[in-house]
Fold:
Amino acid sequence: MQKQILVADDESLIRDFISSFFASIPEYSEYKIDMSVNGEDAIAKIKNKKYDLIFTDLKMPIKTGLDVLKYVAEHSPDTDTVLLTAYGGPESAAQAMAYGAYEYITKPISIEELEMIVKHIFERQALIAENQKLQKTIKDAQHYSKIIGKSKRLSDIMDLVKMVAPTNSTVLITGESGTGKELIAEAIHMLSPRNKGNFIKINCAAIPESLIESELFGFEKGAFTGAIKSTRGKFELADKGSILLDEISEMNLDLQAKLLRVIQEREIVRIGTEMPIKIDTRIIATSNRDLVEEVNKGNFREDLFFRLNIVPIHLPSLKYRKDDIPNLVENFIKKVCFELGVNKKSISQEALNLLMDYSWPGNIRELQNAIERACITNPDAVLKKDSFLFLSQQAGRFDKNDNDEKTEICYNEDDDNWVNIDNKTIERIEKEVILKTLNKTGNSRQDTARILGITTRTLRNKLDIYNVEDGENY
Structure:
C-alpha cells in the first residue's frame, strides 16, 4: 500500500535530501512525498490529507515544528512524526517527545540514522495494522459465532448487518419467535462504534403495563408509592450504547406516543419530573407480528412504525433456511454435550434427514431444545432417527387409536381445583380454562396472564385464535 509522507522544512536541501532518500530505496520509491516550506503550509496540508509519516523542522517561519506536532497530536494521532533540529541533546529529545514525536533527528542528517528510524516506524505501523486486523477478526468471530449457517438468506442478512452496524440508524428486526432476532440485534450493537457502551435489553411483552414506563424512562424519588430513591431507566443506562425493545408490538398506544417523542427529541423524562434528560441511545426493535397489519388494526402507531422502520431486517423461519440445519445441528450437539457434561455425540445421516424434513414451528429455539433432549435421553454415541421420535409425536404424525380412553385435566370453577374429565381435547380445555379465568378476573388480561403463568402476549395470541374480542362475555 502506497504511504503518504510530508516533509516540512524551510531548507530546500533538507527537503530534497529526504525525498531522494525515499526514491533511492525500491520498496519506498512509490511512496507519495509532499513538501512544505513552513509550519502553516504543513498544517494546511494535514487538514486536507491523511499522512502516514511527517518530518518537520523545529524552527520554521510563521509556525514552528512544535506547532505542527501539536496539531498532529490533536487531529491525527495515528500519524507518526519525526522532529528535525539543528540543536541536539536531551532538551530537544524532551521537546519532541512532549509533543508526540516518534523520534528526532539532529542536522546534518545521517542517511544511516534516517534509514534506521524510517525502517522502525514502518515496521511498527505494519505491526499495529496487523494487530488491528487480528482484533477485528477476533471480534467478528466472537459476535458471529452465535449466528450459525451458510445459506444465501442468512448471508444476505449478515451483509445487511455489516452495512447498518457502523451507523446510528434505528433498526427493526421482524420474524417468528425463535428465529434469532435478539442475536442479530446483539451483532449490530457489538459490530458498531457503540460496542463499548451498554447493550440494554427489555422485553416489552414480559413487563406489566403499569411498570414498563418506569423501566424505560426511570423515576424520581417519591414519584409513586415505593419510589424510595431516584432510579435511572433503561434508556439512560443505554446512553452511548444501544437499547433492544424486544417484541415492541406489545407496547400500549400511550407508551408508543412517549417512545415516539424519545426518538424525535433524543431525550427522556423520568416519572415524577418535567425535566428532560438528553440521551444518545441507538434503538433496535423486534417484533414477531406484522407491524403493518397492526397499524391497519389500530394497535400500533403509524408514525412510530415509520420511525422504527428505517432499516428493516426480516428473519425467515427455519423451514426456509433448511440449508443451515446441518451446521446448526453440529453446533448444538457440541454445545449441549459440553455444557451438560454429556459424552461427545454425532448424528446419523438418517436422523439428519428427519430434522431437515421437519417443519420446525418453533424455529431455531425448537431445534436447539430437540437436540438437547435427544442428547440427554440417548446414551449412544450416535443420535439416530429413533432419538427424535418425539418430533413426530409433537407434529401429530403418529396414528392414534380413537377408541383409546383418555383422561385429561380441566378447570373446575366451583372449587378452583384441577379435576379429571374424559374425551376432551387439550385445545378445548385450554380455551375453557383461559376464558373462565378471564371471567374471574373481570376481563383483566394482565391478572389472567399472571394467574395462568403466561405472558400477556401469549394470552392475546390465544384469544386471537379463539376469535374473542375485548369486552365480550365469556
Notes: The first helix runs from residue 12 to 24. The chain has four domains: 4-130, 155-316, 319-394, 407-466.
